[in-house]
What does this fold into?
Amino acid sequence: MKTKLALLLAACFLLSGFALAKDPPLVNDDTITDQIRIAFASDKVVGVLPFEVKVKDGVVTLSGVADQGNQRSRAEKLAKKVKGVKQVLNGITLKGATPPGKK
It folds into this structure.
């Protein structure tokens, strides 16, 4: 009797585990964009800077102006950590720097 009860409880635990398991949320460009913006907003180095984030097929393009080089590199590192990001194109320029192609 105790063996049957133990097997029944074990079966219940296993079935409840399957019932509670959910499909992972889909990762699309919009969710990547949101996660990058959240990461930026909660970071002390880049949180106050208005960087633009565009995502197409998992490829992230960053743009805007940074006060310091460490802000530019930090933004890129944060973006690369987000799930679903395939590549980061960092177009963030430094304040006072000459834009590419102009002299």
The CA atoms of residues 24 and 83 lie 12 Å apart. The longest strand covers residues 59-66. Residues 2-20 form the longest helix (19 residues). Helices lie at 2-20, 29-41, 69-80.
